[in-house]
Amino acid sequence: MDRLTFVSLLCLVAATTVARAEDPYLFFTWNVTYGTISPLGVPQQGILINGQFPGPNINSTSNNNIVINVFNFLDEPFLFTCAARPNPQGSYHYGQINITRTIKLVNSATKLNGKLRYAINGVSHLNSETPLKLAEYFGAADKVFKYNVISDDPKEVNLVTVESNVLNVTFRTFVEIILENHEKSIQSWHLDGYSFFAVA
Ligand SMILES: *[C@@H]1O[C@H](CO)[C@@H](O)[C@H](O)[C@H]1NC(C)=O
Ligand SMILES: *[C@@H]1O[C@H](CO)[C@@H](O)[C@H](O)[C@H]1NC(C)=O
Ligand SMILES: *[C@@H]1O[C@H](CO)[C@@H](O)[C@H](O)[C@H]1NC(C)=O
Ligand SMILES: *[C@@H]1O[C@H](CO)[C@@H](O)[C@H](O)[C@H]1NC(C)=O
Description:
By secondary structure, the protein is mainly β. It contains 2 helices and 9 strands. A 4-stranded mixed sheet has the order 1-4-2-3, with no helix packed on it. It has a 3-stranded mixed sheet with strand order 6-5-9, with no helix packed on it. β2 and β3 (44-49) form a beta hairpin. The chain is globular and about 50 Å long. The relative contact order is 0.18. It binds 2-acetamido-2-deoxy-beta-D-glucopyranose (4 copies). One 2-acetamido-2-deoxy-beta-D-glucopyranose binds next to β2. Residues 96-98 line the site of one 2-acetamido-2-deoxy-beta-D-glucopyranose (NAG).
C-alpha cells in the first residue's frame, strides 16, 4: 500500500469559488487503476476510474459542491483537469445572458527573429518561470507579468511581442469571445482558465 496516494479534490462547479452554505455537496470515491481498453479496436493499457473507461459521469447542477476522493493505484502521478461548465440549455439561456464585455481574439503567425511565432492580438504567450497564479497569490504579480497587454479589439496583430498574455476579467460576468482567424489554415483553440468556463 506504500504507493497509495490520497488526493482530495474539491471541484466547484459553475464558475464560483465561493461555496454557499445551502448548495448541496456530492461525494465520490474514485479508484484510479491501469486496465486494458480498446478505444481504437486494439487492446492497450489505459487508465480506468472505478474499473471504467471513460470514467464515471457526475450528475450535478450549478453550484453543487463536488468532493472527490481520488485513490491513485498507478505507479506514477496522475493529473485531473476539471472542465465543468454550466449547462447552456439548463441554467443559462442564450439571448438572456447579459454580456458585459466582448473580447476579440485574433490569431496570427509571424516570423520574429527568424522564428515562427503564433500570437493572439499581437502577443505570443511566454510562460513565466514563476507560475502566474502563484505570483498573484504572493502579491508579486507585478514582478512577473503585466495584466491586459492585449486590447479587446486589436487593430494591429502582425507586430508581435513575446510576453505572458494575461487578461483581467471580472468574476461571474459573461464575456463574449470572438475568435478571428485571418490565416489560411484552420486553427484549433483550447479555452480554459482559472474560474473560467466556456458555455458555448
Ligand atoms: C476503492 O479501493 C478500495 C481499496 O481497495 C476499496 O475498499 C473500495 O471499495 C474501492 N472503491 C471503489 C468505488 O471501487
Ligand atoms: C441527475 O440528477 C437529477 C436530480 O437529482 C435527477 O432528476 C436525474 O434523474 C439524474 N440523472 C441521472 C442520469 O442520473
Ligand atoms: C439581464 O439584465 C436584465 C435587465 O437588467 C435582467 O432583467 C435579467 O434578469 C438579466 N439576465 C440575467 C440572465 O441575469
Ligand atoms: C481587474 O479589473 C478590476 C475592474 O477593472 C479592477 O478593480 C482590479 O483591480 C483589476 N485587478 C488587477 C489584478 O489588475
